[in-house]
Structures are given as structure tokens and as C-alpha cells.
TrEMBL record:
Entry keyword annotation includes Repressor: no
UniProt GO MF annotations: glycosyltransferase activity
Its membrane topology: Single-pass type II membrane protein
Cellular compartment(s): Membrane
TM annotation in the entry: 6-28
GO cellular component: membrane
Keyword hit for Transmembrane helix: yes
Domain of life: Eukaryota
Keywords: Glycoprotein, Glycosyltransferase, Membrane, Transferase, Transmembrane, Transmembrane helix
Chief place where the protein resides: membrane
The protein, known as: Uncharacterized protein
């Protein structure tokens, strides 16, 4: 017969095992990463759908004498927009306007430069800003930006929240002014490369789309080296059947869409139900939904209506962690602006990113002599 103390190691092991089980349940969520990245909150999705429906309804029946459904439930921004739309006396045919949509998570440092770009042309443009709620917009906005902050939701890299923000801007601009015909999505680090009249002539001159319509300037690529990893970022076969691999496209996050394409984007539900799905954590570095959704949707629905190249120049030669080259103050010069204008497409680039905040002063010094002069 074994001595009484011989069983003690087994008892101790059992006790430790029983104590460790609760610890595993408590610590596992912190030690084991989630299978997927965070999804878009249901409340944000519900708010967006209501906004998008209003935008589509207004665009389907743009008469200034009929009030869009549910407009009374809109925030004050939309109420003011409706007031402008219904109270002003419009000529029989308005000139098309360019809606500048700024997507930002920080101060609008380059607002003074954009103000010079807009100066004298306010009858042909509108400005809208989607500022992430975490952004601290401390600097006083210039006149064109004042009062143009639209209702916004939080955004996050490697998630579809950036798609939602862009769609929110498009829907807001559709509701605000029926004359908005072109929609230019930009970031807080973008700067103009040409004067406004050059941009305006470029947009109006490009009418090579079906039935002589204006085309959207959006990059659409089907042979990008990382296409495979990007397509499967949400898992195997997740994008099927709506988005087959051979229809998946990649492009720049920033674009200029025509009004019919802006409506197409905010109306879409079918592809959105796929692209809004969160990516796998292990595929985080391949998850750039905002660079996939727009080119894929427009290439599937109206490829002939797109130029397939962007008007925004980006330097990816020394990209770091998915961010392009950031131009520092000492790099700013007339030669740099002229170089950034060059394009492989029919038209030269109209905008460029990414510029460091400290670049404002040197940019302002060459604004009148270079940037705003062709």
C-alpha cells in the first residue's frame, strides 16, 4: 500500500488544472486575436441607408417643387440644403458644378491654398467635409469650408468605413445641390496642381462615354500584383457569387465621379453587402476596401463610362506601411509641381498627394506663379 503522501502530486495537478480553466476563459480574448477585423456598427449602417435612399429618391425626381421623402427627419445640414434648393430661383439650365469632397481625420491645413484655388469660381463649385469624429479641427476654416462639415461617422484603416464615408459625402452632395455634376473625392493631404478653370474644362471636355456623356475619372486596374491577396482578404469564396475573381478590380482611393455614377454608388446594395464584410486579421495588410469597391462596382456596371485613370497623382516609389511618399517642405518647388502634373493618360493630373502639413508655406509662395497658372 502506497504511503498517504504519494498521491499529493496528482491532487496538486488536478487543483492547478481546475484553477487554470477560468483563467483561460478570462485571458483568451486578450491573448488570441479575433478572426476578423471590426465590422461596421449596425446603427451606422442604418443611418447611412436612410441617407442614401433620400439621395437616390431626389436624384430620380430632381424637381425643385417636390420635397424628398423623409427630408423633415434630416439634420439641420440637410434642412438648410433643402432650403437653398427650393427657395433660390434657378435659370432653366444651370451650369454643372464640381462638388469637392474632403475626407479627413485631421486639420484642414491646406484650406488656405484651396481657398485661392476656389476664389472667383464659387458659382461652379461646392465644398463638403467628412471629418472623423476623433479629428480635432482646431484651425479656423477659410470661408469656402465654413459650415461645410457634414454629419460623419468614425473611420478606420483596413475597414469598409472609408467606403461608407465616401458614400456619405456623395449622398450629401447629391442632396445639397442638383447642379452638382462632378464629385471629386480628396484627402486633407491633397493639393491642386492646376487652376480651377483648367480642371473644369477637363471635366467638361471628356465626353467620350456612351451617348456622348461625360466620363468618371477613376483608376481601374485588373492586373495589379497583389490582386489575389486582396480578393481573398475576407476568406475563400466569400465574394462569390456577386464578385467573381475575374471581375474584381483595384484602383486609387481618390476619384472624380459624374452624377450618374455617384447615384449608382449610393444606390448599390448588392456589391456593398460583400465589400462591407470585415477582412481576416491575418490579411490586414491586403485589406484596402476603399481601393476595390468603387473600381469594381463601376467597371461591372458602366466600364465605358470611366476613363480608368485618376486625376490625383500619388508617389508609391517609397511607400511605408501602405502610405505613399509624403512630400516635405524642402521638396516643394515649381519643378515638383510641373513633374506631378505629368500623366500617362489623355489629361494631366489635377491634384496630388501626399503633402506634409509643413508644406503649406512653400506651396503658398508658388501658388499664384505656378500652381494657379498654366
Amino acid at each position: 500500500m502506497a504511503p498517504p503522501h504519494a498521491a499529493s502530486p496528482y491532487v496538486l495537478s488536478l487543483v492547478l488544472l481546475l484553477l487554470s480553466v477560468p483563467a483561460v476563459f478570462l485571458l483568451a480574448p486578450r491573448l488570441i486575436p479575433p478572426r476578423t477585423l471590426p465590422a461596421i456598427p449596425d446603427a451606422d449602417e442604418t443611418d447611412d441607408l436612410a441617407l442614401f435612399r433620400r439621395a437616390v429618391l431626389l436624384s430620380a425626381a430632381p424637381s425643385s417643387n417636390s420635397k424628398p421623402a423623409a427630408a423633415a427627419a434630416d439634420p439641420s445640414f440637410f434642412a438648410a440644403a433643402y432650403g437653398r434648393m427650393t427657395n433660390r430661383k434657378r435659370p432653366p439650365k444651370q451650369q454643372p458644378k464640381v462638388a469637392f469632397l474632403f475626407l479627413t481625420n485631421s486639420d484642414l491645413v491646406f484650406a488656405p491654398l484651396w481657398e485661392k484655388f476656389f476664389d472667383g469660381h464659387h458659382g461652379l463649385l461646392n465644398v463638403y467635409v467628412h471629418a472623423d469624429p476623433s479629428a480635432e479641427l482646431t484651425s479656423s476654416p477659410t470661408p469656402s469650408f465654413k459650415g461645410r462639415i457634414v454629419p460623419a461617422k468614425a473611420t478606420q484603416r483596413a475597414s469598409a468605413t472609408l467606403i461608407s464615408a465616401a458614400r456619405r459625402l456623395l449622398a450629401t452632395a447629391l442632396l445639397d445641390d442638383p447642379a452638382n455634376h462632378f464629385f471629386a473625392l480628396l484627402s486633407q493631404s491633397c493639393v491642386p496642381l492646376h487652376p480651377f478653370p483648367t480642371l473644369y474644362r477637363t471635366l467638361l471636355a471628356d465626353n467620350a462615354g456612351p451617348k456622348g456623356r461625360h466620363r468618371s475619372f477613376i483608376e481601374i486596374l485588373d492586373a495589379e500584383p497583389t490582386l489575389h491577396d486582396r480578393y481573398y482578404a475576407r476568406g475563400d469564396d466569400v465574394m462569390l457569387p456577386e464578385v467573381p475573381y475575374d471581375r474584381f478590380r483595384v484602383g486609387s482611393q481618390f476619384f472624380v465621379l459624374t452624377r450618374r455614377h455617384a447615384v449608382m454608388v449610393v444606390r448599390d446594395r448588392r456589391l456593398w453587402n460583400k465589400f462591407k464584410l470585415p477582412c481576416l486579421v491575418k490579411k490586414k495588410h491586403s485589406c484596402y476596401p476603399e481601393e476595390h469597391y468603387f473600381p469594381t462596382l463601376l467597371d461591372m456596371q458602366d466600364p465605358a463610362g470611366c476613363t480608368k485613370f485618376t486625376l490625383t497623382r500619388v508617389n508609391w516609389t517609397d511607400a511605408v506601411d501602405g502610405h505613399p511618399h509624403t512630400y516635405q517642405p524642402e521638396e516643394v518647388s515649381a519643378d515638383l509641381i510641373r513633374e506631378l502634373r505629368k500623366s500617362n493618360g489623355t489629361y494631366s493630373h489635377m491634384f496630388a498627394r501626399k503633402f506634409a502639413p509643413g508644406s503649406l508655406d512653400p506651396l503658398m509662395k508658388i501658388a499664384d506663379s505656378v500652381i494657379l497658372r498654366d
